[in-house]
Design brief:
Low-confidence stretches: none
Number of helices: 5
Strand order of the largest sheet: 1-2
Number of strands: 2
Structural class: mainly alpha
Distance between the termini: 61 Å
Strand content: 5-15%
Mean pLDDT: 89
Radius of gyration: 17 Å
């Protein structure tokens, strides 16, 4: 009914590593909680995806390493009560459509990668002519 996504990284506080694990849940329209590094959900939302914060307590995303996994389980148990709720289904459908959107992928590639490469290139070549 609810996916507990165990991402690759957990203790690395300065990294957010999204893998096929989270995107599989999104593609399958499965409600999820994520056991990963601190701030993972925040980064997922920055990419335009929705989470279930209007339905459950997602403060586990900000919890310290020693406590986060326990709070993830609590959040999963809370979410399972609402897994077939219309709002949960809408979030799941929205995320799947966003994941499959070519336009959105182009936007993310431009914002996250290409704009930074362009900015770094301009910084490196400034005043070299």
């Amino acid at each position: 009914k609810v996916e507990i996504v165990n991402e690759t990284y957990y203790f690395e506080g300065d990294q957010c590593h999204m893998t096929e694990k989270i995107f599989k849940s999104i593609l399958m329209e499965k409600p999820f909680v994520v056991n990963s590094t601190k701030g993972f959900l925040k980064e997922l939302r920055k990419l335009g995806f929705k989470t279930f914060s209007s339905i459950i307590d997602e403060s586990y995303d900000d919890a310290d390493n020693i406590d986060r996994y326990k709070r993830v389980i609590d959040a999963a148990q809370e979410l399972v009560k609402y897994y077939d709720n219309d709002e949960v289904k809408e979030v799941c459908k929205y995320n799947k459509n966003l994941l499959l959107s070519t336009e959105h992928k182009r936007k993310i590639i431009n914002e996250v990668f290409l704009s930074k490469i362009h900015h770094n290139y301009e910084s490196l070549t400034k005043g070299r002519i």
